[in-house]
Design a protein that fits this description.
It is a single chain. This protein is of the alpha+beta class. The protein folds into three domains: 7-103, NAD(P)-binding Rossmann-like Domain (Rossmann fold); 130-199, ATP-grasp fold, A domain (Dna Ligase, domain 1), CATH 3.30.1490; 205-448, D-amino Acid Aminotransferase, Chain A, domain 1. Helix content is 33%, strand content 28%. The protein contains 15 helices and 19 strands. The protein has helices at 17-25, 42-45, 62-70, 88-95, 109-112, 114-123, 137-147, 171-181, 249-264, 297-305, 309-318, 322-330, 357-364, 400-415, 437-448; strands at residues 5-11, 30-35, 55-58, 75-82, 131-134, 152-155, 166-168, 195-199, 205-213, 216-230, 235-243, 270-279, 282-289, 338-343, 349-353, 368-373, 379-380, 391-397, 421-427. It has an eight-stranded antiparallel β-sheet, with helices on both faces. A four-stranded parallel β-sheet has the order 3-2-1-4, sandwiched between helices. A hairpin with a 2-residue loop joins strand 9 and strand 10 (216-230). The longest helix has 16 residues, at 249-264. It is globular, with a radius of gyration of 22 Å. It starts with a strand and ends with a helix. 46% of the residues are buried.
């Protein structure tokens, strides 16, 4: 009897799920790509390419999707994994129908719905956000008056990438946020029937990338975010993420807290990407995604440490965690090169892009290793979240000051003539708490010090 071929199901294999798919395919494993929904944003749908998988399926209902997987001949499904944020819930649901695959613990809602996530943290005695999830703007305003204070964050409870996030300073800002986002479809294809209204934590924000196996959590990378609070768009946008050593004053507080949070959220198997703010009371989770860090995140970690999280994830799916166990014994990682992940930001003009961004950046910046930008002919928008950013890139160098100097050059280009459009829709001036060139240089000087 011919033994069954090992198969891995990847739900919504987009963003960092694409290189993970390649990693799995390179093992000789049978790869099955599942599209969780047809109504998510086009930025996701255009990434679903059935020709990249040995088999593919577009999900409509759980019964038909399970039947499709079970009826594929000669296969043993070894793992079912989310490839990106939209696929987390369906991947976890599908695991329940295949008893041989590893899974997380408890309801998937607490790993996908941010209000449920923080409720679970509170239930387990782990510090969580002060918040309310409501579809009633007046209830939100009353809650702020009774339980919190401005500024306030408003965002969808089931989205990502700062999609639909508003940085509010008044009741009028809250009403504006609800008017624009309530009952609208967000970029993962879910209608915002309620919005999350959260306290604003005043402190630096960090990201912890981990892979979990048999209930143990292996930290593979940590980043410190720099964000811009834009007073014109009422948004908080990403500037850059600085890769950190494993140990340090902040790291030594964050790692134990994140592991406690992952335990509380039932993350027992697979990748996670946790955002944490440290304020005067210590670390507090913003949110955890039960999947790989999006975009270039895993490849940036490989640039910095030599270890690709996609490889570790493949290892726990197919090889019994041999690599995972070896890395876990090392109790940390070493930095080989400094890495900074930079988000482009356009606060100047909207229109059809007329000059190539990527070519200009590569000419001016020698530290760029990986890059993705809008192309000539694409619609350049004013940046208010990850989706409307003109692009991003990763820099690496053994001397971090070289990276900072080139980033100063980037921001000056953005303020000057990096973004050239035809038929401009709207002219803007840079209006942000941290994006102006002078203030950015102060931020970079502090980071370099």
């Amino acid at each position: 009897m011919v033994p069954a071929r090992e198969a891995v199901v990847i739900v919504d294999p987009f963003s960092s799920g694409a290189p993970f798919t390649e990693e799995v395919r390179d093992t000789g494993c049978f790869v099955i790509g599942i599209l969780s929904s047809q109504i998510m944003d086009e930025c996701w749908l255009k990434q679903f390419r059935p020709e990249l998988y040995d088999a593919s399926y577009e999900h409509c209902n759980i019964e038909d999707t399970v039947a499709f997987l079970r009826n594929l001949p000669g296969l043993h499904i070894s793992a079912i994994m989310p490839g990106s944020e939209p696929g987390v819930e369906l991947a976890e649901t599908l695991r329940e129908y295949f008893p041989d695959v590893e899974r997380n613990l408890g309801s998937s809602s607490m790993r996908r719905h941010k209000a449920s996530m923080h409720a679970q943290l509170r239930k387990k005695g782990v510090r969580a956000m002060n918040e309310i999830c409501t579809g009633d703007v007046e209830e939100a305003i009353e809650w702020i008056a009774a339980s919190s204070s401005y500024p306030i964050i408003v965002k969808p409870p089931q989205s990502g990438g700062s999609d639909g996030l508003f940085f509010c300073h008044s009741d009028a800002d809250i009403r504006n946020a609800f008017e624009k986002e309530l009952n609208e479809k967000n970029f993962v294809g879910i209608v915002n029937t309620k919005l999350l209204v959260q306290q604003f934590l005043d402190g630096p924000e960090y990201v912890v990338d981990a892979v979990s196996y048999e209930g143990k959590h292996l930290v593979l990378g940590m980043w410190k975010y720099s964000k811009a609070k834009n007073t014109e768009t009422k948004a908080i946008t990403y500037e850059y993420s600085d890769f950190l050593p494993y140990s340090g004053e902040a790291q030594d507080k964050i790692i134990p807290y994140v592991k406690e949070a992952l335990d509380a959220l039932g993350i027992n198997f697979g990748a996670s990407h946790s955002e944490v703010i440290i304020d005067k009371d210590g670390p507090c989770l913003v949110e955890t995604g039960a999947r790989l860090h999006g975009g270039l995140g895993p490849r940036c970690i490989q640039l910095a440490t030599g270890v690709d999280p996609s490889t570790v994830l493949t290892d726990i799916c197919l090889f019994g965690g041999r690599l995972f166990k070896g890395l876990y014994k090392q109790n940390g990682y070493n930095i080989k090169e400094h890495v900074v992940f930079t988000d482009l930001a356009n606060f100047k003009v909207e229109g059809i892009l007329d000059k190539c961004i990527e070519e200009r950046l590569k000419e001016e910046m020698s530290t760029i290793r990986l890059i993705k930008t809008l192309q000539v002919g694409d619609h350049l928008k004013i940046t208010r979240d990850m989706i409307t950013s003109p692009g991003y890139f990763a820099q690496s160098h053994i001397n971090k000051e070289v990276i900072w100097e080139e980033m100063r050059r980037l921001r000056k280009m953005e303020a000057d003539d990096l973004y050239i459009v035809r038929d401009p829709v709207e002219e803007h001036t840079i209006n942000s708490d941290k994006i102006t060139v002078v203030e950015l240089e102060e931020t970079l000087d502090a980071a370099a010090a």
